[in-house]
Amino acid sequence: MASNTPTRSKQNGPSKQDGTGARRAAAAVLQSVLDKGDTLETALNRELSAKDLANHPSDRAFARAIATTALRRLGQIDAVLDSMLDKTLPERAAFAMALLRGGAAELLFLGSAAHAAVNCAVELTNSNRHTRPYRGLMNAILRRITREGADLIKAQEEAGEVGMANTPYWAWASWEVAYGAETAAAIADAHLAEPPLDLSVKSDPEGWAKTLSGTRLPTGSIRLSHPGRIEELPGYGNGEWWVQDAAAALPHKLLGDVTGEEVLDLCAAPGGKTLALAAAGAKVTAVDRAGGRLERLKENLKRTNLSADIVKADLTDWAPGRKWKKILLDAPCSATGTARRHPDVLRSKKGEDIASLAPVQATLLAKSAEWLEPGGTLIYCTCSLESLEGPAQAALFLKNNPAFKRVPITPEEIGGLSGCITPAGDLRTLPCHLGEQGGMDGFYAARFTLSS
User: Fold this and answer.
1) Do residues 346 and 175 lie in contact, with contact meaning Cβ atoms separated by under 8 Å?
2) How many Cα atoms within 13 Å fall on the side-chain side of residue 264?
3) Fewer Cβ in 10 A, N or C end of the chain?
4) How do residues 385-407 score in pLDDT, each as one tens digit?
5) What is the mean pLDDT of residues 18-27?
6) Using one digit for the tens of pLDDT, what is the confidence trace for 135-175?
7) Catalytic residues
8) CATH classification of 8-164, choosing from 3.30.300.30, 3.40.50.300, 3.40.50.2300, 1.10.940.10?
9) Do residues 135 and 95 make contact, with C-beta atoms less than 8 angstroms apart?
């Protein structure tokens, strides 16, 4: 079956830089994510490599901004479009719908010039036989949004349910049960803003914060609000730091001093925790079954001049033949805690996905426990906001493994962030934590020790 997405060559040549290429790419990304199930990262990498964008970083950034904004604000955007469309567009017009969403994102939230957003969308609609019949509709809807959109968004905001509107019901319901309605709203609101860039440094965080014009967070991470191209920042080339959300930089700290210690890092790729452990002086064995992600880990180790033993294996049938005193398991999960940076996550997951992942996490946690020495420390963590993937797993593990006990986390271990510790003593970060400084990803971690 032929694709409904216009071809790049017919639509605009490499020399045409009026934003058409960026808008084409953004719409193609939205169609890939929402209709075809691709991840945002995969779709962006594919579309931003097009010849008409390859040498134009400003257009690449513009395409990314349109796509991510449309995904973050999809509930609001679709509510506006639904109020203006007499009926749902047919499947063959999927690219036209993606153009409508992208155009609405520009007009409602990005402040684009109305004539440019409307004219480019109409031109793109006219460039493909499947969408050409909708060029009049495209023009009419987007022009109506220029006239009425601001008032419609204001009405949404006055209703006080913007966060809920942009959050799938299954996720909202889960957070409301776990954290209460007020915190669920704060989480959803935190997902609406473009997050800052966090870095973990090998040493001298104060010095690197100054060099990079960033802020040193209480946890030790360096936060940059407007970083520009990562590869051009000081310290990147000689591997003085790596990109890692402030929340993701916490679990490895719960192992304590690892200088000279042998540490087993499970489900390690793409390697932020491996790098942190190696930089702290640990002798790391990093295990993951994903070949491509392990290659990224190898590249990052080489760039940062750090070392680790890398093992490609499926943990369910791996037999290392030895035990470790310290183990970190970053279990595969729904990744709902990363929705600030990956706004496609909540659109690609469903409640039943959480239930299907839980048995996998339980299995991996049980396997990890088999490789721990008596008196050793095991950290279980996930980048999920879902209770089933966090405290429920910890409770089940302790019930089934009476030789283990929970070791409560202290504020001093995580930069004094006492609000990120649960009553049971586990780590629980939320996107609304550090809100005035740009938030942080949602993470859960529990610490266990095996009786000697």
Assistant:
1) no
2) 23
3) N
4) 999 999 999 999 999 999 999 99
5) 93
6) 999 999 999 999 999 999 999 999 887 889 999 999 999 99
7) 383
8) 1.10.940.10
9) no
